[in-house]
C-alpha cells in the first residue's frame, strides 16, 4: 500500500480524522482525541496491545519493529511498520484495524458503545 492508500483507508474508519500535533510529520490519525496511526513518508506507527505487538514483530521481522520514536515504557504498545520491503496490503489493513480497535477498547464505555467490534 502507498502512504496515500493507507491514509485513505484509515480515514474511512468511523470517526477517524487527521491531526498534526507534532507539525507536518507525522500525520496522526485519531478517534476521540486518541492517536491510532502515525503516518510518515516511508512507514507507519500503529497502536497495539502487547500480545499483538509481539506477534507482528515476530512474524514480520523485516517490516515491523517496536514504535521507534516511543519511550521504552510505551514501546510494547506501538509498532512501526516499514513499507519496504513490500508487505501485503491485507496485512497492513489488519494492523490498522487492530490499532483502531485497540484505541476503541480504551475509550469510556459510553463512547465504546457507539462502535461494534
Structure annotation, total helices: 4
* Rounded average pLDDT: 92
Number of domains: 1
Helix content: 25-40%
The arrangement of helices and strands along the chain is: HEEEEHEEHH
The rounded Rg comes to 13 Å
Quickly name the level 1 CATH class.
Alpha Beta
What shape does the CA trace take? globular
Looking across the biggest beta sheet, what order are the strands in?
A: 1-2-3-4-6-5
CATH fold-type name:
Aspartate Aminotransferase, domain 1
- Assigned CATH architecture: Alpha-Beta Complex
* Through-space gap between termini: 24 Å
- Percentage of residues in DSSP E strands: 15-25%
Number of strands: 6
Described by strand count, sense and barrel closure, the largest sheet is: 6 strands, antiparallel
Structural classification: alpha+beta
Poorly predicted runs are: none
Amino acid at each position: 500500500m502507498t502512504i496515500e492508500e493507507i491514509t485513505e483507508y484509515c480515514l474511512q474508519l468511523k470517526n477517524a480524522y487527521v491531526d498534526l500535533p507534532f507539525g507536518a510529520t507525522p500525520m496522526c490519525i485519531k478517534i476521540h482525541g486518541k492517536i491510532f496511526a502515525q503516518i510518515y513518508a516511508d512507514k507507519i506507527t500503529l497502536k497495539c496491545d502487547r500480545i499483538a505487538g509481539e506477534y507482528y514483530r515476530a512474524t514480520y521481522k523485516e517490516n515491523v519493529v517496536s514504535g521507534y520514536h516511543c519511550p521504552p515504557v510505551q514501546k510494547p504498545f506501538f509498532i512501526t511498520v516499514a513499507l519496504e520491503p513490500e508487505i501485503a496490503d491485507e496485512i497492513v489493513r489488519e494492523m490498522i484495524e487492530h490499532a483502531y480497535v485497540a484505541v476503541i477498547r480504551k475509550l469510556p464505555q459510553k463512547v465504546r458503545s457507539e462502535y461494534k467490534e
